[in-house]
Amino acid sequence: MLAPMSSEPEQQIGVGAPDAFQRMWTPHRMAYIQGENKPTGTGSGDGCPFCTIPAKSDEDGLILARGELVYAVLNLYPYNGGHTMVVPFRHVADYTELTAAETAELAEFTQHTMTALRTASGAQGFNIGMNQGSIAGAGIAAHLHQHIVPRWGGDTNFMPVVGHTRILPQLLADTRRMLAGAWPAE
């Protein structure tokens, strides 16, 4: 929500110097910052969300599609609308630990995700990748996951650059329904 702009100086002590900027508060992001849904250890039984998501319904888990070895799921903390991850069912941390079959299905699901995003939302490009290890930026380093972030011309504006805030135009449940409906038939 936006705080109203005012030409009146802020009256609270310690709030800071008033300026002409509006503030967009995103308190839901604090859950991510404080580590909500992050595992307590490196094992599959240590609260790994990627191990617990498959036990949920597709709607509750934000799952787009399930394969034999991997599944596609919306990111609960997306960088962009439609930000999807392809995750092996098996609790494995490193790309080199995947079997040939897991690697092939992960690649196939990445292609299916791209197709669904193009069909459902007209994605014009993608950022695709994995962060291997916490030092490389993996939020959940103990369970491999590949990010597929759709991109559109002009989707990066001043908000993420200046305000470190993402603007998402759709609820995750609506995005899941739209992309699951656009998932390629096999």
What would you say this structure looks like, in words?
With 186 residues, the chain is of the alpha+beta class. It has a single domain, classed as HIT-like (HIT family, subunit A), CATH 3.30.428. 27% of the residues lie in helices and 13% in strands. The chain has six helices and five strands; from the N terminus they run αααβββαββαα. The protein has a five-stranded antiparallel β-sheet with strand order 1-2-3-5-4. A hairpin with a 3-residue loop joins strand 1 (63-66) and strand 2 (70-74). The radius of gyration is 19 Å and the shape is globular. Residues 1-14 have low confidence and may be disordered.
List its traits.
alpha+beta; five-stranded antiparallel beta sheet
Short description:
With 186 residues, the chain is of the alpha+beta class.
Strand content: 5-15%
Taken together, the total number of domains comes to 1
Give the second-level CATH assignment, the architecture.
2-Layer Sandwich
Radius of gyration: 19 Å
**What is the CATH superfamily?**
HIT-like
The low-pLDDT segments are 1-14
Spatial ordering of strands, largest sheet: 1-2-3-5-4
H/E series, N to C? HHHEEEHEEHH
Q: How do the strands and helices of this protein lay out in sequence?
A:
Layout: H1 29-33, H2 49-52, H3 58-61, E1 63-66, E2 70-74, E3 84-88, H4 100-121, E4 125-129, E5 146-151, H5 158-162, H6 172-181
Antiparallel strand pairs: 1-2, 2-3, 3-5, 4-5
Helix pairs in contact: 4-6
